[in-house]
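User: tokens in, sequence out, please.
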């Protein structure tokens, strides 16, 4: 081997050895970095102090690069300013701070913040360089690393800067972890303190509650004793008044009797002066008797001893008897008395004597306070929620009552003006007794008046007392609590000339129509209530003839027919339905009395009265058309309202997709959960309903989805204009029933299915 070849071989070996040494140093360097990172993470877990983490980072950075000065800046949480947290050596603090401030002014610092790697900046006024590296995690900037490098030292190149970035990135993560740990620790401390304080408060409240319970128990016992004493006193008072009334009545009858005898004798002796005096005595005696009678009645009512004896009686005859009694008094004061009766029943079930007493009191009052005027008694029949009511309205053109004093009229011994007692007489008990008696009969009295123009008193009583007897509470019917709100309603029963039912109906063929043929208003209204909840439209007829006419008009899905309805003749009546081509496809559900009817041709179902409503709905659903297979998305932030609407729609057979806000709804839409209809609230977080509609309509795949707005927001004219053309229906929360809502959904879905949305 030549000398030249030997030299070449030696050079190759040397190069290989140097390469392996470099690789070994790099491997050791990498292991050193890994060790540094582990120590950084360990420091983050050991404490919440960022200075400790930075000190560890300083040591490892200086091992990597021979920096003359190393400094760490951290972001102040309150001011968001960069504040120097660590520097080494400490003697260089002010000098390095001045250099950094200079770089801040010229923009280099901000430039370095936006770079996710090390940045080397040559200082033109000095012979050294500054290395900047942002301390940032994925979520936020936590600070800045600054290192000064002198010329002639180890070169700062990519080989050095990359591991420096790795160390500083992990330092940022360690700072983030430490901050989170500190925050959690502080929150735990605060929570423990809060729990401790709350526990003390609860213990205190528990003690106070125990004391209050003990106090209330004593108070309740005292109230029970006081109530018993008051009831005993009331009973004693009532018994005393009743006994005294009877005791006074006996001698008073004698006075009146002897007064009449003496009047006869005075006329016989032709002593007119004695007659006038005796008439005055008689008048005073009868006034006293009236007072005693009224006190006796009131004491019975207050003691709960006033008995009601309902019976069927001729209402028209009762009215004639009352009017004939009052007419002489009206004529005596030159008043015109008129009676108006509107479609009254042949009989009424109630206590006729108490009704007579009420009417005599009210008509007597009108005569008393009216001179040369008009007095009118109007008797009307009305139906409210299936209950028949008789309204007695007594109006006059008398002196009238100040409106603010009307509530006092029904108080005991009260009159509109104390002077009326002297001028017109009276005890002030008549209206009180009338009101109490009306309430005992299941009704009430209301009054209206205007000074100088007269007064009007309306008594409303149930036509059938036994119908509401089960609703009585403590002797006063609960009907009286709400029946008064129907005083302004128009009478249900009108003459044929004033027929209220339209000859034609504006029908929608896409909805389920049900015809109920029954003369029982209670049953009709209950059926209506149940079927509207199922999304049906309900029409009524009270006889077979009217039922046939309506059936041809609306072509109902189901006909509910009572066998007791006027005109029903069994199979012959049913044949009229089945021979009619317009309604031949209608299902008939026959209402019968229990075990009274055999099967009839053409009847699909039989139901016995009284109706079992669960069974009724189950039977009806067999014939109800099913909703189309559409899904509905509800975009509503209120969880309670969202759940309620979901339950309503689910009950109607609809599939529901729920979204709490606009972004959530679009996430569902993008995930191919596209509904066939959207129920949208306008008031939503993040994205309001108007913004949602605009974004939805911009997407070609979603722009034709029908939108129903369901919101509590009061819409302005501008907002209504914005919704025009983009929504098919606007509901005001709380204004629609479940039945109306389901009906509208069924209608909209049907239109959408047919391409008419």
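Assistant: Sequence out:
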């Amino acid at each position: 081997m030549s000398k030249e070849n030997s030299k070449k071989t030696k050079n190759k070996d040397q190069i290989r050895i140097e390469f392996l040494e470099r690789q070994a140093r790099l491997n050791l360097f990498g292991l050193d970095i890994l060790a540094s990172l582990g120590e950084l993470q360990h420091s983050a877990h050991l404490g919440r102090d960022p200075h400790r983490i930075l000190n560890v980072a300083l040591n490892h950075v200086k091992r990597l690069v021979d920096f003359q000065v190393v400094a760490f800046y951290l972001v102040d949480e309150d001011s968001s300013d960069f504040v120097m947290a660590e520097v080494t050596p400490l003697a260089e603090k002010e000098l390095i701070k001045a250099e950094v401030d200079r770089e801040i002014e010229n923009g280099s610092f901000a430039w370095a913040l936006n770079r996710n790697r090390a940045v080397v900046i040559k200082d033109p006024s000095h012979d050294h360089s500054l290395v900047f590296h942002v301390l940032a995690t994925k979520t936020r900037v936590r600070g800045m690393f600054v290192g000064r490098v002198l010329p002639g030292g180890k070169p700062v190149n990519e080989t050095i800067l990359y591991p420096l970035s790795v160390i500083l990135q992990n330092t940022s993560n360690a700072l983030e972890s430490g901050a989170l740990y500190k925050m959690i620790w502080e929150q735990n401390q605060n929570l423990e303190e809060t729990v401790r304080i709350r526990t003390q408060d609860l213990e205190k409240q528990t003690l106070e509650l125990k004391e209050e319970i003990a106090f209330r128990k004593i108070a309740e016992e005292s109230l029970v004793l006081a109530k018993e004493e008051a009831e005993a006193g009331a009973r004693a008072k009532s018994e005393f008044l009743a006994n005294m009334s009877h005791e006074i009545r006996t001698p008073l009858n004698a006075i009146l009797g002897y007064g009449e005898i003496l009047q006869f004798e005075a006329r016989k002796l032709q002593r007119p002066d004695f007659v006038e005096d005796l008439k005055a005595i008689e008048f005073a005696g009868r006034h006293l008797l009236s007072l005693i009678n009224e006190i006796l009645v009131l004491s019975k009512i207050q003691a709960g001893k006033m008995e009601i004896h309902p019976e069927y009686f001729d209402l028209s005859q009762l009215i004639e008897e009352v009017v004939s009694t009052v007419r002489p008094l009206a004529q005596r004061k030159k008043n015109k008395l008129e009676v108006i009766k509107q479609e009254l029943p042949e009989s009424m079930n109630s206590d006729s004597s108490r009704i007579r007493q009420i009417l005599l009191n009210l008509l007597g009052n009108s005569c008393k306070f009216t001179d040369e005027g008009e007095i009118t008694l109007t008797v009307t029949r009305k139906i409210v929620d299936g209950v028949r009511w008789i309204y007695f309205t007594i109006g006059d053109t008398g002196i009238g009552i100040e409106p603010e004093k009307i509530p006092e009229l029904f108080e005991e011994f009260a009159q509109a003006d104390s002077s009326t007692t002297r001028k017109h007489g009276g005890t002030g008990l008549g209206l009180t007794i009338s009101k109490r008696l009306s309430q005992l009969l299941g009704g009430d009295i209301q009054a209206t008046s205007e000074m100088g123009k007269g007064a009007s008193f309306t008594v409303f009583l149930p036509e059938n007392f036994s119908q509401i007897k089960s609703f009585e509470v403590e002797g006063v019917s609960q009907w009286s609590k709400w029946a008064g709100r129907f005083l302004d309603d128009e009478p249900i029963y009108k003459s044929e000339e004033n027929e209220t039912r339209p000859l034609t109906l504006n029908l929608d063929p896409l909805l389920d129509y049900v015809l109920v043929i029954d003369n029982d208003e209670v049953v009709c209204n209950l059926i209506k209530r149940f079927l509207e909840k199922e999304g049906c439209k309900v029409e009524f007829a009270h006889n077979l003839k009217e039922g046939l006419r309506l059936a041809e008009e609306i072509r109902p899905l189901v006909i509910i027919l009572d066998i007791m309805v006027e005109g029903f003749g069994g199979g012959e009546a049913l044949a009229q339905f089945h021979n009619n081509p317009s309604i031949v496809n209608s299902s008939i559900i026959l209402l019968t009395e229990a075990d009274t009817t055999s099967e009839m041709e053409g009847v699909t179902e039989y139901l016995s009265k009284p109706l079992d409503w669960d069974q009724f709905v189950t039977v009806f659903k067999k014939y109800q058309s099913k909703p189309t297979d559409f899904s509905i998305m509800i975009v509503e932030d209120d969880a309670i309202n969202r759940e309620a609407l979901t339950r309503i729609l689910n009950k109607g057979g609809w599939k529901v997709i729920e979204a709490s806000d606009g972004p959530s709804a679009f996430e569902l839409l993008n995930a191919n959960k596209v509904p066939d209809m959207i129920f949208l609230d306008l008031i939503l977080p993040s994205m309001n309903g108007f913004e949602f509609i605009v974004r939805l309509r911009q997407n070609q795949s979603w722009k034709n989805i029908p939108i129903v707005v369901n919101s509590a927001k009061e819409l302005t004219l501008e907002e209504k204009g914005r919704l025009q053309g983009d929504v098919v229906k606007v509901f005001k929360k709380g204004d629609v029933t479940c039945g109306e809502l389901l009906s509208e959904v069924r209608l909209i879905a049907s239109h959408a299915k047919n391409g008419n949305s």
